[in-house]
Amino acid sequence: MRLLHTSDWHLGRSFHRVGLLEAQAAFLDHLVATVHAHRVDAVLVSGDVYDRAVPPLPAVELFDTALHRLAEAGVPTVMISGNHDSARRLGVGAGLIERAGIHLRTDPAGIGTPVVLTDAHGDIALYGLPYLEPALVREQLGAPKGGHEAVLAAAMDRVRADLAARPAGTRSVVLAHAFVAGGAPSDSERDITVGGVAAVPAGVFDGVDYVALGHLHGSQTLTPRVRYSGSPLAYSFSEADHRKTMWLVDLGPSGPDGAITGAERLDCPVPRPLARIRGRLDDLLADPALAPHEQSWVEATLTDPARPAEPMARLAERFPHTLNLVFDPERTEDGPGASYAQRLRDRSDQQIAEDFVAHVRGGEGLDGPERTVLYGAFDDVRVDSAEREVGR
What we know:
Residues 271-359 form the Nuclease SbcCD subunit D C-terminal domain. The structure is a single chain. By secondary structure, the protein is α/β, with parallel strands linked by helices. The chain folds into 2 domains: 2-267, Metallo-dependent phosphatases (Purple Acid Phosphatase, chain A, domain 2); 274-330, no CATH class. 31% of the residues lie in helices and 22% in strands. The chain is built from 11 helices and 17 strands. The chain has helices at residues 21-37, 57-72, 87-90, 94-98, 134-141, 148-164, 281-286, 311-318, 340-344, 349-360, 368-390, and strands spanning 2-6, 14-15, 18-19, 42-46, 77-80, 102-105, 115-119, 122-129, 171-177, 210-214, 220-223, 226-228, 245-251, 260-267, 274-279, 297-302, 322-327. The strands form 4 sheets. The protein has a 6-stranded mixed beta sheet with strand order 6-5-4-1-13-14. A 6-stranded mixed beta sheet has the order 7-8-9-10-12-11, covered by helices on one side. It has a 3-stranded parallel beta sheet with strand order 15-16-17. Helix 5 runs parallel beside helix 6 (148-164). The protein is globular.
């Protein structure tokens, strides 16, 4: 059986105020064409279909069109909700839509009930694990404690229990939306840290033939059986070096080394390349080596000691698609001239809060119990936001 693994469409998202709906439509055209050209047997979409819980109408229309085209192609599609999606909204009509071969998995209660497909080698059970907010699903899944690892482990216990009751040789695929240890994040993913911990070990998914992951926007292989497809489009300049692809995965018969017989990356259309350039303004405007970036979406970091006049207008004369301008004067980041943004760069909300406490205490940081209370407060805010979304 041939599977096409994709995720993180983020329909409705823009890129630095540039609308991406046309580029997203072009990707979905490419997806359907790939299904036909490569004789795909099933499409896997591992969450973050939309960019926000209440997506704009054009994004909903684009999604609706994509579902119709996949259904018309007669190719089963298994899709889960991600942390950007409203699980309840995405799952509306799931029972009816399933009759057309579109299997939406947005309810944690259905984790142990797979979509079962069949090929010449027997059955393949595909389990959809929607994004699991620990505080909201812990009791439902019977997890012994909170945190992503505990709830995913409890979910996988249900998967393995169902799989054990199936005929010998049944192959298994899991779709999940999570931050798995070993994956490389980018700036465009929403933080899902709980209790100060975001990543879960890949070993949580032991016992299945293939794990189709979503959430991280870079395509990557954690193990031969555990892979991120990444997003089909770049959603931040931190993804400038990404190669945007989907995974084409072939499953053969079950064997001691698993059922995967091949995995190939298929490139996605690139609406416009990204470029990050850095230097003094006059140098950037004159450097011939930057000619290939003149039609790219550009993020320019200016290192001039003093801010030059009209920098964006001057950059746009050579780089008309400059979208982001950063100032990083040539001085040490720890010096008195360092900006607030520079001091906070690459620091989580929890780290920033800890630094603030230490600052107001004259350098005395948090002890263990205080850190637990602080992280619990962040978790409560996250859960409150999620519960309000569920109640809409």
